[in-house]
Amino acid sequence: MSLTFLFFGILAVLAIATAVICVSNKNPVVSAMALVAHFFMLAGLYLTLQAQFIAILQILIYAGAIMVLVIFVIMLLNLGDEEKLREKTKYRKILASLLGIGFIAMLCSVYLGGGLGNKATSPMAITIGAPAALGKELFTNYLFAFEAIALLLLTAIIGAVVLAKRKVD
Amino acid sequence: MNEIPQGYYLLLAGVLFTIGTIGVLTRRNAIIIFMSIELMLNSVNLTLVAFSSFFGDSSGQIFVFFVMAIAAAEAAVGLAIVLALFRLKKTIYVDEANILKY
Predict the structure, then answer these.
(1) I want to staple B43 with a disulfide (CB 3.0 to 4.6 A). Which of A5, B17, B54, B83 is the partner?
(2) CB contacts < 8 Å between A and B, how many?
């Protein structure tokens, strides 16, 4: 039992726990906070995989930008409680749990039936995870995709503004 | 060097994806459905980074970068739709938004 393994175990358990809180809590603000914690756990898991740049991006983009947007919308909408809508969802929860159990059983049979795969990360992993290597790759082999994603983000900004603005008429 | 077997990461990602799926299927608050979708996207990211490190190929991490950009775009548009829905129907529970259904 090495230190990395211990680190992985703690992060994995916390990641699953925060994900469950996010999905099951009635209060949207608690859900959002649990999701922020979940993103930090995932960043730690990326560090165990030697993907430093992705770990930083995870915190900057998800925990920093996207979740702030979500929390602002929760604040703007001033939500009531979900209690009064409770009764109808019983059968839905049973169906979803059955589906979840089936899905996890399928994953277990696939992954554990075929062995656990490679025992160690590639020796190349440390150089790959650094910003310099990823940046070089991004601006040479994936340049077209990079430009396309810039256009997509511009479109998304315009779309968001058009959808959210008040109609002036 | 990391001595955790690859299967552990894949299994964890699968469990997180399942939790996200259950969230999308059972919750009716549009914002929580949206956050469950983020959970699912993140579990896929974990799979991509795991494969990238174990095979020593950087494509996986580049894909994660693009998935994050898509998630940011999705967040902006999705939350704008939630705001527009709230203006129109005074609710964000997806069961009550059925104007396109009939």
Answers:
(1) B17
(2) 249
